[in-house]
């Protein structure tokens, strides 16, 4: 609990620089958070979200504010949103797991991260954020281009050989980082999570109230989003739960 309470608004200064339109809401929200007015902080920070501003720190701090305000479902939603943008952040993951420990519905983990080899690959894959990887890719491309130009211009065979040898390891690194970044983009575009944000959400067999109620999910339960239609979200949770929930009762991880 103490760690969650202490990691409240460490991002404010950087976001003020990165998002001029959100300067006032972020500063006022940070002040409200420090004063214990979490509902006000949420209201102010949500204005940035509604403007389309995306930031892992913003989502993380919204998660903290919702948690302190007693709304665990929304807290988990925004912790997940923060991790979607920055999967390697240990603080985000710590707070998410803490909040999940307070939920009622438990879903068995697939155990992939328990395997030491797969766990190592997972950590390496998420060691850098997608934004950082894209910057590195761009830098390597420019370096390879520069080395190639120097090789063409050089008249010294030894220099040509050294320049050629320098390109190969850079190309290998480029391929590895490019594959990791590409997979992250693929996952972000094709796989979406949702979170129950109300105390209990009924899972229906179809996208209308007249359909049969299959199950009920408690606040904070995370599920896979299969599709969205007017007023309803088609969900899947493990092998047992597959149906529709109202959009007003859940949130989709951004």
What does this structure look like?
This protein has about 250 residues and is of the alpha+beta class. It folds into three domains: about 1-100, Serine Threonine Protein Phosphatase 5, Tetratricopeptide repeat (Alpha Horseshoe), CATH 1.25.40.10; about 125-190, no CATH class; about 190-250, SH3 Domains (SH3 type barrels, Roll). It has helices spanning about 1-5, 10-20, 25-35, 40-50, 55-70, 70-85, 90-100, 115-125, 130-155, 155-190, and strands at about 190-195, 200-205, 215-220, 220-230, 230-235, 240-245, 250. Helix 4 (about 40-50) runs antiparallel to helix 5 (about 55-70) and helix 9 (about 130-155) packs antiparallel against helix 10. The protein is elongated, with a radius of gyration of 23 Å.
Give a nutshell description of this structure.
The protein is α+β, with helices and mostly antiparallel strands and 254 residues long. It contains ten helices and seven strands.
What integer is the average pLDDT? 84
* Helicity range: 55-70%
Distance from N terminus to C terminus (CA atoms, Å) equals 25 Å
| Order of secondary-structure elements | HHHHHHHHHHEEEEEEE
Tell me the fraction of residues in β-strands, as a range. 15-25%
Total number of beta strands: 7
Relevant CATH superfamily of the largest domain: Tetratricopeptide repeat domain
What oligomeric state best describes the polypeptide chains here?
single chain
Number of domains: 3
Per the principal axes of the C-alpha atoms, what is the gross shape?
A: elongated
Write down the CATH topology of the largest domain: Serine Threonine Protein Phosphatase 5, Tetratricopeptide repeat
